[in-house]
Amino acid sequence: MKPIRAAMVTPLTGPLAMYGRVAGEAVRLWVDEVAEPESVALTLYDTHPDPVSALRQAEASRPDVLFGPYGRGPALAVARATSRLMWNGGGATARLAAPEFENVVNIPAPAASYFQGGLAAIRDADPQVASMVAIHTGKGFSGEVAGGAVSAAREIGVTCAEALFQPGRASESLARAPSADVLALVGSFEDELEMVRAANRRRWRAVLSVGAGVDEVLEALGDGREGLLGPAQWMPRAAFGPDVGPDVEWFINSYQRRCGALPPYPAVQALAAAVIWWECVRVAGTLEESALLAQARRLDVRTLYGVFRLDPVSGLQVGHRVVTVQWQDGFRRVVWPPHRAEASLRLL
Known about the structure:
Blueprint: E1 4-10, H1 17-35, E2 40-46, H2 51-60, E3 65-67, H3 72-81, E4 86-88, E5 104-106, H4 116-125, E6 131-136, H5 140-155, E7 159-164, H6 170-176, E8 182-185, H7 189-198, E9 206-209, E10 229-232, H8 248-259, H9 265-284, H10 289-298, E11 301-303, E12 306-308, E13 323-328, E14 331-336
Parallel strand pairs: 1-2, 1-3, 3-4, 4-5, 6-7, 6-8, 8-9
Antiparallel strand pairs: 10-13, 11-12, 13-14
Helix pairs in contact: 1-9, 6-7, 9-10
């Protein structure tokens, strides 16, 4: 019996290479140790600098399954350019929704949800928190996160102001921003690092930053990360046991043996995409894509990444939710949702 041909298009070079490579390593680990190489043969294709060219190379190999790339931009580019079913383990965006993208199975929670938990945690800690200013580019990922934050804030009665900046000039907008109870920063990781360095913490009760949710992004700040809040797609200490696929302990130990480091969030997202695809194949009993898409839309299970459940209309992920972490005493601690919290939120 011939092995199933799997293609994964993801950044292997360029600015997103660090994240795309770990995603590829995670899927290869799953192939080698869970699916077994006799069952699945995986080939990686580099989306940098041209995601569509990488896709065409992958499609030419006539794969049985197509795993999408890390990154909002590459994921959108690939999904637009293919009629194949794309298992999206790396593009955290609400743009990949039906009816435009009926051919996408979304694994991660969309970026618009990133600050919802943080705002709920802040308001829960102090119901008098009444205002927020969001500093962002107004475009792409930055605009999507900020837009979701503004909507979530207004729903709980928090007034909002917004300040836009050009990439590379974030601190100028920060200096002109009005004071508020909450500061929300969204930009490239370089811009967020600049803004956190420049921010006068005495102006705010809480500071939200996407980069604060990732262990290594603001590492250069050292103790300067203390008190920052951010979204985390995955925190192994807060993970539940899976219904399907390997558990957290296996993944951490196996990935560390293979790669010499702990698995970052893009790795577990990509692994979850493979696990969900494999479960759909098992239940549907076929590799036919329309049958697998129908099965994915019915599926309600938990992997080591969290709950998988798609919205029946949009096709967006609604089962998995990001957690909110805060840097406390030099470590990221989960502070929201309450049933998964490791510590209470500390306002500045």
